[in-house]
Design goal:
The chain is mostly beta strands. Helix content is about 5%, strand content about 50%.
Length: about 140
Amino acid sequence: SVDMAAAVVSLLCGEMVSRVSSVLNKDTRQFGKKYLFDGNEDTCWNSDQGTPQWILLEFPKSVEVSQLHIQFQGGFASRTCRLEGCTKKEALEKITDFYPEDNSALQRFSIPAEPVDRLKIIFEHSTDFFGRIIIYHLDVLGKKL
């Protein structure tokens, strides 16, 4: 039998397109979206103020996402997050809500596995008074279809 857990891999790839709601002071060199995925624990995406902030990922081919790994900076996390997804031609639809802790640890969330080409993570309630979100690490795991 095939071990399903072993089949779960990071779905991040070079052809993936990512977009974010904002970058602090538009300073992409210091706080840009690329730092979500660079594997460096000293770099981060730092959003500007305002609610909600979000991250949108567009995959080159359909993927089935089953896990999210997110590392916030404590004090700049989101208590409530909404995950939306869709296949190529469709509109984004809600997949699930998840509820991170306000800390700086790597947090892992299991999510209902659905085939998507686009995935949007919406940070609805920042623990920062001004609505800023800081994320040091983001990974999306599942299966390539």
